[in-house]
Amino acid sequence: MIKFFADSTMDISPEDVKKYDITLVPITVILGDTPYKDGYELNPEKIYDYVKETGNLPKTSACNAETYKEYWQPALDRGDEIIHFSFSGDMSTSCAAATTAAGELDGVSVIDTKNLSTGSGLLLMYACDLREAGETKEEIVRKVSSRVPSVQASFIIDKLNYLYKGGRCSGVALFAATALNLKPCIKVKDGKMIVGKKYMGRLGGVLEKYVNDILNEFDNPDYTRIFVTHTKFPPELVEAVKARLKQTPFKEIIETTASCTITSHCGPNTLGILYINDGGKVE
């Protein structure tokens, strides 16, 4: 049997985790001096409460090689073949730790998704499609890896407070964004986060422009599925985004909530649209 493991940053739904028998290896989120397992012992609401009460951000800690081996070993003992999907190696040391652990065991392959959230989750869901179609482990690794550069992942962030507190933007950038009501689009490029277009105005209007820009960027999307992934966000705005996407040929429009790890860095009112832009043609 081919068994899938993934870092808890994939942001796919609990229903799909169960349906496809995926085991998530949790990143550690630290509130004050207390560590929690992302997705197992902590939810985003507790993070918002912690930041509101203390003014401090959570810290996150990558998994080490021993943790990965502890999660993988029972599956290996059952005779399973393992593919592990990792958070971008350019954003976290988790991928390097997983690769080290895999090198000490037989039967484990690690895929650096070079992405985060459901940008990584798209590749994991594609792997589930391949497994259901009867592909071998080697073919799954090859085909998934070939699609890594084609994942399009971007997010609109309402406020820069969390990024500022986390040292990911300057005080000047925070002041300018607040004064001008700017909302940056964060994109993933070659495994790294970069700042794209900066939108000005209220969140609802900005979101409409962002969705239109995404649709205008389409040149060869794989219409199998598209993700709308968000932290705490006004439900009516999420529904408006999904309604707009329903006008496209996508077979599945999947809404998911971001993990504690993503929430810790981006804060509330963050929303992303993620898809694969290769026409679904994989050799």
Looking at the structure, the CATH topology of the largest domain is Rossmann fold
- Total strand count, please? 13
Helical content (DSSP H or I, runs of 4+): 40-55%
The averaged pLDDT comes out at 90
Principal-axis shape: globular
Total number of domains: 2
Order of SSEs: EHEEEHEHEHEHHEHHEEHEHEHE
Top-tier CATH class of the largest domain: Alpha Beta
Low-pLDDT ranges: 170-176
Pairing-aware structural class of the strands and helices?
alpha/beta
Measured distance between first and last alpha carbons? 24 Å
Radius of gyration: 19 Å
Number of helical regions:
11
CATH architecture field of the largest domain: 3-Layer(aba) Sandwich
Main pleated sheet? 6 strands, mixed
Strand order of the largest sheet: 10-9-8-13-11-12
- Strand content of the residues, in percent? 25-35%
Could you give a quick summary of the protein structure above?
This protein is of the alpha/beta class and 283 residues long. The protein contains eleven helices and 13 strands. The protein has a six-stranded mixed beta sheet with strand order 10-9-8-13-11-12, with helices on both faces. Strands 2-1-6-7 form a four-stranded parallel beta sheet, sandwiched between helices.
